UniProtKB/TrEMBL annotation:
Keywords: 4Fe-4S, Iron, Iron-sulfur, Metal-binding, Molybdenum, Nitrate assimilation, Oxidoreductase. This is Assimilatory nitrate reductase catalytic subunit. One of its GO terms (molecular function) is metal ion binding. Pfam families: Fer2_BFD, Molybdop_Fe4S4, Molybdopterin, Molydop_binding. CDD domains: MopB_CT_Nitrate-R-NapA-like, MopB_Nitrate-R-NapA-like.
């Protein structure tokens, strides 16, 4: 009988409930949990494809020391000995942990406890520093604690939703669908999108403010000045529950209208309309994400937003408030246990001696970190200059995701002792580890995560532990024991860790701290196994329910009042004559972080299969970059080569490139190698959205496209991008010099036996070449070459890996690169959930489907997660316009 397990999605901070079903054969399927209050059964394309990402291909299954397999005792003894020796010789600040929002709360808790309470250093930071730390800093400055006041329900109840620095449709698709459904039910709801790019989220916007990079502080300063002279200002709330309004108002008023227009780059009419909407609408929710946080002025951006909500008293009530949209599945859980270098567990402050004493007494630890540790960028600088001599990296890939990534890689490579805990054996970071420790992945892990609305949910295992892989908390606890702290790390199960975490949250609290889940302090294994999603706070004696903060004050500064923060509008332009473009990095719809999970899914890779850069058509003409050509992006820190996507969605002077691709999937596409290590002075968060670069066409002599039944070896090519495909792999190529023997090249890259001869042709005049290798009726590999970007129907060519080629005509059709009659090309994938291509959608439009709903009814496109509905709408518009012409 098939077994169902309720668990939680491992991707973004929405925290969707998932039901995983394992049938009698061991096959896994997933669906949304209709009872989970985060998603009510919805899943995005990534969540829907989770079952396609849990194979053991490439998994790290056994501990390794210096590249050789070892046992756990040998590996853990070495880790404990080297860390202990380093601390004894150089002090506790000579070691560091770099952890991840992919960890479960129980993993995070043990890492924080070991480093801050027993090693005695705060040198533990997390990749959440790269996405959420400005929000943390802004919350702490304004509220006195890292408190998200509202809930997802508020987004649906609002009459005005402001989305700033958030491509909600692609980065938080399930919340986007909840918002789209609310707007459909209440057409008078208004949505404003503030973003330099016209993203898919703009399809439901009533107003798109194409703001200049880092113009947000000025915009919300202008809004505060406007609100302060209007009836929207809430003088009673300001007087009763806040401090510092006069200073914030004075700073905002000092920004004159010309400065506002210059810094934002927005038309005066659009600014006035935005201000009018905010002023006249009581129920306002302002959602913000990485476009706000990932900035050298990120904390000021957050406080500029919070100032406007505090000034109007629009916080903590249904349909009102600022809302930080979390990037990772457990960035919030990490914040709860003090995973950042400048925080203590249970939202206590490392700079507060009473909090330090309280945590040390609770842990009964020999020491407690007395000062904040090194934040991520500074941590890797300390690795580079030798201050940090032993480093443990867990569940993250900083060689890809950190700014100035080449320097980070050099630092890790030179570090005397590096430990990496991960699920994959080969990553850009793992290749530099002296010790590799195999961790559990989604479906194997057992613990909890916290989503953007403070909701704690269980991740439950439904798969066995593969090989010798172990939980991250177990690895950390074992090292703690071996370093001489056995009693403090005597845990046998994650339920015991969660119970301790809950007890610490309630320890000497009495309502003085926001994070309190004391009601779960005595939880047992059985109750933990059955734990339903619940929202904090939940102090002892309380019942679960929807909770909001600050409607009636009650902030966490000593006087109980919030703080307005006087902010200054920063300079927004980093470009110069040598680096005249602004690079903006971010996520795309169907990939996640550095692709260690999503890169396994052919369905997810079908939508966008290679790294790219969006560039405005006029900029492309002026720089000589052809559509679908290759573009070289340069900064003083590094270089990347990606595909050019010429589109007017991108503003002039700007470039957008995704952050996912790495050396496992592309030749030179680690975009964070280009990003400068500039950080926010308060949060330490890197500025990944405003990077001065230059762009130029990459001079390729030949372009190529290939399909292969087996994974190709790294090709000898100036540019390559590899992606999983149905039945095998797909490979994009470009060469800057001639290859003398293409048949030999194919044999080496695709492992073609010598006895198999190719079918193909070459045209010396045009430069076209086609080679296909068959083993009986099965296609092993095919290569298509041309002097211009190859125009072969890619999805059709991929489908030939699964086709039977007994007919010679079918083989010649493949070599020609043209589908024959009765075998139409579906076109580029638009809907990843159901693998529906652009040509199939266009055909439906020609047959009379003139709405997104009608196309969905005929093709299923857009009927699952809905992330592609904006693209479908644009295809419909283009088809109808072409028909009219």
């Amino acid at each position: 009988m098939a077994a169902e397990v309720k668990t939680t999605c491992p991707y973004c901070g929405v925290g969707c409930g998932v039901i995983a079903t394992v049938d009698e054969t061991g096959a896994v399927s997933v669906k949304g949990d209709p009872e989970h209050p985060s998603n009510f059964g919805r899943l995005c394309s990534k969540g829907s494809a989770l079952a396609e990402t849990i194979d053991l291909d490439g998994r790290l299954l056994y501990p390794e020391i210096a590249g050789e397999r070892s046992g756990w005792d040998e590996a853990l003894d070495l880790v404990a000995r080297r860390f202990s020796e380093t601390i004894a010789e150089h002090g506790p600040d000579s070691v560091a942990f770099y952890v991840s929002g992919q960890l479960l709360t129980e993993d995070y808790y043990i890492a924080n406890k070991l480093m801050k309470g027993f090693i005695g250093s705060a040198n533990i930071d997390t990749n959440s520093r790269l996405c959420m730390s400005s929000s943390v800093a802004g919350h702490r400055r304004a509220f006195g604690a890292d408190t998200v006041p509202g809930t997802y329900e508020d987004i649906e109840l609002a009459d005005l939703v402001v989305l700033t620095g958030s491509n909600l449709a692609w980065c938080h698709p399930v919340i986007y669908q909840r918002l789209a459904a609310a707007k459909a039910a209440r057409p008078n709801m208004r949505i404003v999108v503030i973003d330099p790019r016209r993203t898919m989220t703009c399809d439901i916007a009533d107003l798109h403010l194409a703001i200049r990079p880092d113009g947000d502080v000025a915009l919300f300063m202008g809004l505060l000045a406007h609100l302060s002279t209007s009836s929207a200002i809430d003088q009673n709330y300001i007087a009763s529950h806040t401090e510092g309004f006069a200073g914030a108002f004075a700073a905002a008023s000092a920004l004159d209208s010309n400065d506002l227009l210059e810094r934002t780059g927005l038309p005066a009419m659009q600014i006035r309309e935005f201000f009018r909407l905010f002023e006249m609408t009581s129920k306002v929710v302002t959602c913000y994400s990485q476009g706000v946080n990932q900035s050298s002025s990120g904390t000021d951006k957050v406080n500029a937003i919070l100032n406007c909500h505090l000034a109007t008293g629009r916080v903590g009530r249904p349909g009102m408030g600022p809302f930080s949209l979390t990037g990772q599945p457990n960035a919030m859980g990490g914040r709860e246990v003090g995973g950042l270098a400048n925080m203590l567990a249970a939202h206590m402050a490392i700079e507060n001696p009473e909090d330090r004493d309280r945590v040390q007494r609770f842990w009964e630890s020999p020491v407690i970190a007395a000062k904040p540790g090194l934040k991520a960028v500074d941590m890797f600088r300390a690795v580079a200059d030798g201050r940090i001599k032993a480093l443990w990296i867990m569940a993250t890939n900083p060689v890809v995701s950190m700014p100035d990534a080449n320097s980070v890689e050099s630092a890790i490579a030179a570090c005397p002792f590096v430990v990496v805990s991960d699920i994959l054996r080969e990553t850009d970071t793992a290749r530099h580890a002296q010790v590799l420790l195999p961790s559990l992945g989604w479906g194997e892990k057992d613990g909890t995560v916290t989503n953007s609305e403070r909701r704690i949910s269980r991740q439950r295992p439904f798969l066995g532990m593969p090989g010798d892989a172990k939980a991250d908390w177990w690895q950390l606890a074992e090292v703690g024991r071996r370093m001489g702290f056995a009693a403090a790390f005597d845990f046998d199960a994650p339920a015991e860790i969660f119970a301790e975490h809950a007890a610490l949250s309630a320890f000497e609290n009495n309502g003085s701290r926001d994070f309190d889940i004391g009601a779960r302090a005595g939880i047992t294994g059985a109750a933990y196994d059955e734990l339903s999603p619940f929202q904090w706070p939940q102090p002892a004696g309380s019942a679960p329910g929807v909770t909001r903060f600050f409607a009636d004050g009650g902030f966490y500064h000593a006087d109980g009042k919030a703080r307005f923060v006087a902010v200054e509008a920063p300079a927004t332009d980093r470009t110069n004559a040598d680096f005249p473009f602004t690079l903006n990095t971010g996520r795309i719809r169907d990939q996640w972080h550095t692709m260690t999970r999503t890169g396994k899914s052919a369905r997810l890779s079908a939508h966008i299969a290679e790294p790219f850069a969006e560039i405005h058509p006029r900029d492309a003409i002026e720089t000589g970059i052809p559509s679908a050509g290759l573009v070289e992006i340069d900064s003083p820190h590094g270089k990347a080569i990606v595909r050019a996507l010429v589109t007017d969605r991108q503003a002039r002077g700007g470039i957008f490139a995704p952050m996912h691709w790495n050396d496992q999937f592309a030749a030179k596409a680690r975009i964070d190698a280009v990003v400068a290590p500039i950080t926010d002075p308060f949060s330490g968060q890197p500025a990944s959205k405003n990077v001065a670069v230059t762009v130029r066409p990459f001079p390729a002599s030949h372009y190529g496209f290939a399909v292969s039944a087996t994974k190709p070896v790294t090709p000898d090519a100036a540019y390559w991008a590899l992606a999983k495909a149905e039945g095998g792999w797909r490979l994009e190529l470009a060469f800057d010099q001639t290859v003398e023997d293409w048949t030999a090249w194919c044999r080496a890259v695709f492992a073609i036996p010598d006895e198999i001869e190719p079918l193909g042709y070459a045209d010396r005049q045009s430069g076209d070449l086609r080679l296909a290798f068959f083993d009986g009726e099965t296609l092993l590999a095919a290569l298509f070459l041309a002097r211009e970007p190859v125009a072969v129907a890619r999805n059709w060519a991929i489908s030939q890996l699964s086709a039977v080629h007994g007919d010679l005509r079918k083989r010649f059709a493949l070599v020609a690169g043209r589908p024959g009659a009765g075998r139409p090309d579906p076109g580029a994938t638009v809907c990843s959930c159901f693998s529906v291509g652009v040509n199939q959608i266009a055909a439906a439009v020609r047959e009379g489907c003139h709405s997104v709903q009608a196309v969905g009814k005929q093709t299923s496109a857009g009927t699952n997660c809905g992330s592609c509905r904006g693209e479908i709408g644009r295809i419909i518009d283009r088809c109808l316009a072409a028909a009219a012409e």
